Amino acid sequence: MLHIFNVNQGQMLALDVASAVGSVHQLQEAVQGYTGVPVHDQVLLVSGGEILDAQRHVSSYHGAGTDSNPLYLVCKVTRGNVSQLSCSADIRELSLCLGGLKEDAQRLTEMATSFECVQRYSSLADRFTMASVSAVQTCSRLVQEQHLLHQGWQALASNLEDTVAAFERRAERFKAQYDKISTIKGRAVDLLRDFDADLDVLAQIPLPSCLVRESPAKSTMASSPKSDRMNSSCTLLEWISASDPDHSLRDVADEVRSLLSQVNEAAVSGIQTSLATVHEQANNREMKEIKGISKRFAQLDHHLRIADELEEKQRKFAELVKSQEHKALKGARDMDTVRELCRIQRDTADQLIDCQQQLTTIADKFAQSKAEVLNNVRARLSGWIVETHQQLHTGSNQLALYAEKLTALKRRLDVIRQVHEAPPIYATAVTEVIRRKALREDFSTWAQALVEKSLSLAKDEGVIRENFSSKLDRHFLRSLFPGMNDKLPEFATENPRNFDQDLPALEADHLRSLRRAVPTLSSLLQVAEPHVYDRLLVRDPRAPVTISPSSFHMRREESFFTAGSPLNMTTFAKSFPSTAWLSSGDENLDLSPGCDGLLMAKSPPVTMRVSSVASSSMKNASHLGQVTPLRPLSPPMGFNDSTLSERMERSGGSEATVVAPMSSSLAKSAPIRIPTRDSMTSSRQMSEKSSHFGTPEETFGIGSGDEMLSSPPEVISRSQFREEVGAI
């Protein structure tokens, strides 16, 4: 069974369990069939004050609907007379039962003494026992209904508190929004003052047809009579206005001015006054709490215990009367014994009547107490609850009205702000499109070159490792060198996926036309080069000399560095004899390194004396020498050699076949002439750019002071440099 307690009537309804299977709305329809209360006047609550949602299932409210925790039904419109509820049908039934028992006892008193009289007294005692049980059950139910009335009232009060709290939270959000609007009110006034000037700027900005065709808003402008002209050319102002032909941007500005005048301090003060009134009335403790209810419940429990004692007393009296019948049977129906038994039964019947009278009186008091509690609850329900909810409804409607105005004001202010920011954002977007196209082109060429270099490195390294492993794997020394079979991991072996393919078809011509059309935006119509090669440049961290890519000058000692050819398989094999003889074939398995091994004691070839910086620079130079659409504004020194680019173009751009000295500022600087001993005594001061490093003449005292150079020498060849050093 599904138990629902009707707070307005103070009665429990027991509905079929099928009502708990469906939705709350179906349950309300079933309640309407039982009570006649329309669905729109019903309010179903749980003990915590939560109102049941009509769309949810009744079973989703766990633990609700039992006899100890029923659902609470409240009718919005109070029906019936409260005074009619003071005397219930149960009390009338108890009174009628007591009257009938009294009449039967009186007839037995007037009846002549006989064994039949003894038997009738025994039957009358059973009826008294049943009447006492019914009276105690009625008393218990009346006490429980009063407790449920109080719990139902508490559920209503909790629901009212939750409703007021929700209203206060809405009012706080409204106040926060209003404060935010107040802070930007000055900014809004400035935007409105400059709005006409913003529209004039928008009218000067030409919108190319490619943007109009690719815009997602094209479908909204298709029905406009100006759509054909816009497909060819239009201004940014015309494009914005075509999105809503029924309203103009100046109408939006007028609406903002009107809303700013409506949402003022007076409106906020009115809402705060309504909130204070609702808060004060909802927190009225005299109405929220029923005074004396706890004391009343204590008295009811006390009288209920008395009723239980009277019931027990009735049961004992009934057993005494029935025992007299057994004595009469044992006495063989002796008249003296029968007369004595009848006298005892008459006295006991009087006590039964007295106990039943007390039980009926207690039940009547319980009924009166329930009527008082019910009258109190119904008075509060029709008065305090209804009035508070009406004020809540009024304040909520007022709050919703001004909140809607605030929302409309925020949206229109956002439109005004976007119109003001449209020219600079449009100019920035145009330059960003062109910049991204340049970045895409440079990055694609850089990535393609990186992939080619990575594949070439992987191929060469694979050959080296394979040749070495083919020899070492068949030698007993392989156990000393574990991990020699690893392969170079794949890195940058594929070109990156395409990106920025859906950019608008904007060109530099549109940028120039914008500069002419809107000179005020010239500062924003500047495209910065992406500098992909400079930003992705990586140098060897072990390099002893740091060469700044943006520097065009170098120290004097850096002139000692000479350019060498890039490393390839041939150079690598000649530089490492072990690799050379291991790679020479199976016929050299029984030979040790021969003359090539003496190279370990000699100076390395000229090509191997190049520092890691020169080699790295050469690799980057051979790569950056490729013809690309956009070049960095400030490329590193050594990366702009036209001779190297021309050689690479003649050789087809293959790095594997290009072996040339690096033409850079490193090679163009003349070597330092070695000073003589006499120069050490010269009074001429060294240049501030000199590194002040020593020479062999300072130690051994060889040379002449006349050989000190007074001016930078001409560029000499490497062989001449060696001859001069050897002569010293």
From TrEMBL:
The keyword Plastid does not apply. It comes from the Eukaryota. The keyword Protein biosynthesis does not apply. Transmembrane segments: none annotated. This is Autophagy protein ATG17-like domain-containing protein. CDD domains: Ubl_RB1CC1. Residues 126-471 form the Autophagy protein ATG17-like domain. Residues 677-728 are annotated as: Disordered. GO terms for biological process: autophagosome assembly; autophagy of mitochondrion; glycophagy; piecemeal microautophagy of the nucleus; reticulophagy; ribophagy. GO terms for cellular component: Atg1/ULK1 kinase complex; phagophore assembly site membrane. One of its GO terms (molecular function) is molecular adaptor activity. It holds the Pfam family ATG17_like. Keywords: Autophagy.
